[in-house]
Amino acid sequence: MGKTNNVLWVSISILILIVAMSLTGCSKLHTRINLMGESENWRGELDTTVTNERAENGAYTISYKKDNLEDIKDYEININEGRIIRKESDLTSKSINFPITRTKGSMVSRNEDQTIVIEWTDKNDNNFEEKLILREK
Predict the structure, then answer these.
(1) First and final C-alpha spacing in the chain
(2) What is the reported pTM?
(3) Helix (H) or strand (E) holding 12
(4) Fewer beta carbons under 10 A from the terminal one: N or C of the chain?
(5) CATH topology of domain 30-136
(6) What is the C-alpha to C-alpha distance for residues 25 and 35, in angstroms, rounded to an integer?
(7) What is the pLDDT of residue 106?
(8) 64, 50 contact by CB (below 8 A)
(9) Residue extents of the structural domains in the chain
(10) 3-state DSSP call for residue 5?
C-alpha cells in the first residue's frame, strides 16, 4: 500500500509541475518603451509595447514645434538610418504618426537610442536638416 501511495503522490506532483510550467510559459511579458527627444524645430517620441521580446505595437510621433506649417514645402523623415523613411510634399498637420505593428521581431530594445533625421525645404527653397536622438526619459 505504501508503494501505491508514493506512485500516486509522485504522479500528482509531476502533473501539477507540468501544468504550472505550461501556464508560466504561456504568460505574455509586456514591456512598454517610451523614448523622447527634441531639436530646435521638432519633437519626437516613440511609445511602443513589446510582447515576449518579439511582437511590437506602438508608434513614432514626430511633431513640428512651430505654427507656420505652410512654410514647409517638402520634407523627409528618416528613422534609424532608413528603417522607416517618409517623404511628403506638404506638412498638413503638426504631428506625423508612424504606426508600428510587428509580430516577428521588435525594432527597439529598452536601452537602444533611436535616431531621427528630418530634412525639409521651406517656401523660399532654403534647405534644413535636424537630428533627434530619442532616449528613455
Answers:
(1) 64
(2) 0.72
(3) helix 2-26
(4) N
(5) Immunoglobulin-like (2.60.40)
(6) 29
(7) 63
(8) no
(9) 30-136
(10) helix
Cα atoms in the 13 Å half-sphere on the side-chain side of 110: 5
pLDDT in tens for each of the 137 residues of the chain?
A: 567 777 788 778 787 877 666 655 555 788 888 999 999 999 999 998 888 877 888 999 999 998 888 888 899 999 988 878 888 888 888 899 989 887 776 666 666 888 999 999 998 999 999 999 999 87
Three-state DSSP string of 78-107 = EECCCCEEEEECCCCCCEEEEEEEECCCCC
Contact 40, 130 (CB under 8 A): yes
Nearest to 110 by CA among 30, 27, 40: 30
Count, residues in the chain: 137
